[in-house]
Amino acid sequence: MLYQHIHWLVIVLLISFRAYPGHSLLVKRGRIRCLEREREALLKFKDELVDEYSRLTSWGTHEDKKDCCTWKGVYCQNHTNHVIALDLHGPSDKYGLLPTASLRGNISPWLLEIRNLNNLDLSYNDFNGSQISKFIGSPGRLQYLNLSFSNFRGHIPHHLGNLSELQRLSVGSNSMLTSSNLNCLSPLHSLGYLDLSYVDLTLATDWLPTMSKLTCLQLLFMSYCHLAPLVDPLPSMVNASNFLSDLSLDGNKHSSSSGFPWLFNFSSSLIYLDISYNNLQGPIPNGLQTRATFSQWLHTQKELLNLDISNAGIHDPLPDWFWDLSPKLYRFNASHNKIHSVLPDLSSKFSTYMYIDLSDNQFNCLLPSLPLKASVLEFSNNKFWGSITDLCSNASSWEYLDLSNNLLSGQLPDCFANQMSLKFLNLAHNNFSGKIPLPNNISSLHLQNNSFTREIPASLRNCTSLHFLDLSENKLTGEIPTWVGDHLSKLVLLNLRSNQFFGTIPLNLCHLTLLQVLDISFNKISGTIPKCLSNLSAMVQQVEFELYAYIQSSRFIYLEDAEVTWKGKENEYIKSLKLVKLIDLSSNILVGEIPPEITSLVGLVPLNLSRNNQSGLLLVKLGLLQTAQDDFRAQLTFKTPNQHQNRRYPLPTSRVLPMVAFLPSACCLLTHKE
């Protein structure tokens, strides 16, 4: 949905520049353009808003603020001086999804005094579950109305049907908004853009006939609306739109494909179609399909920009013509199927692609040459085999490459070190070996469960943007370099589990104040636990860090994850990774007392020091250590000062706390086994 919004934004901006070019620059010194009646109406409108972030400080009655045509968000027509646009959309987060500095309060009917208003944008605010005021649908000149992402509830007022000049209507992403009858929208014959996403339309059985009456409609978004099942056979759609270019019906759990005949009325104009996350079943109607759940209709679409056939139950090979689809296609997702065809050389295909996802299929072939200009390449969870020696020699645009969980082998090509744009690289769970060439700008590196040897490469010290480093389950050796703590200051996850590292835990690791996961278990690390681990402040309080992400339609898709092993169980964290605070130093040859300073890490969920040779008294700070987020159960073995036998105490809940959280005594003598 992102590019549709950009498309309409450009249109609105062009209209704006034509209607009121340089509205503040054209104000003559000493001249007030704003009409008194409209200024007073705007001030009374402001009085009913709660502006706790001072977004409307330019609105006022002081002498230097009397011209409302210079107020933030207010636009006047250059010749008549009437206010014609009010743009008070709130700032969203950097991904354009969530409101941040929102306006709150009530929408005052004083807006009715702005009689020439044709553009009203109140999106990305927080109106605290209030209803959309009926007066907004009073007859007027509104052409653009955006109330999305603003926390409205209740029914969509049928008065909106009175806005006969309306061209763009967006009330989407108000999850408490509902409608039982969309027929009120039928009179909007000029409507070209309609967004009802996430509005509850369970009872709106008339949605399809109503949409078919909107003959100028070009962009329609009805994602996750709980749409009523389509009636089969469908009513006649004589006036169905022939101009629809963008359609999103994803997430509605339809159980019938009877809506296809309606889609085919505008098949020649359609550019974007999303019907994912439904329960569609049955064949594509005759005349619109070819041999092998792939249609002739798709074959003829030369204007496609986004094609998503993921999770569609496809068992067949992809036809040869599939790799020569629309030259404008920039995003292709065929993941979570059972496709098993041999892939052609892709380096000359998809010249405009930004995102390609073929993950979670059954491709069993040599990994082909990949598109050179793509940004995101997701080929994980297949059976690709062979070497990747020539994989990246000519590529320059890759940002995200995931080849994990395949059968790939051999050494990594040196060209990886020259991939200046590569931020995310996941080659985990293959059989790669040899040295590790690293791009300097990498921020996330996952190489676990391979056969890499030698020491951690010194070139890694140049990767100062690294957030995630997982080298676990390899054959790496040597000491943990001291420069890890000095040069890789942005590390959130450091996993060196199950290698052949020796030496002591470098004190420099204590400089990693963003570190949330430290796992060096199952190595040959000796010496004592540094007291300065108490400096790992991210294990005391929550800190912010970046996740590699991609915006799909209106949904925020995280492409970053991390695998964390605890007590032999591997767990994958994606969005919940921020909740994980873990230290695992188990199965080494550590000695000495456990430093009491470690109990200051009150955010720790699991702390594993088992299978070492440590002993000593440890003061227990009961009540300081927080409860965990994971559903595990643990047991502790210890000796109390007044007892000579070992005892095992199960934790009283299913939460995992650091080892000392529920000991019945103020101090204890920990043994070297669980």
Describe this structure in words.
The protein has about 675 residues and is mainly beta. Among the domains are: about 130 residues, Leucine-rich repeat, LRR (right-handed beta-alpha superhelix), CATH 3.80.10; about 190 residues, Leucine-rich repeat, LRR (right-handed beta-alpha superhelix), CATH 3.80.10. The protein has six helices and 42 strands. A twelve-stranded parallel beta sheet has the order 14-15-16-17-19-21-23-25-27-29-35-37, with no helix packed on it. The chain is globular, with a radius of gyration of 30 Å. The N terminus and C terminus are likely disordered.
Short description:
By secondary structure, this protein is mainly beta. About 5% of the residues lie in helices and about 20% in strands. It is globular and about 80 Å long.
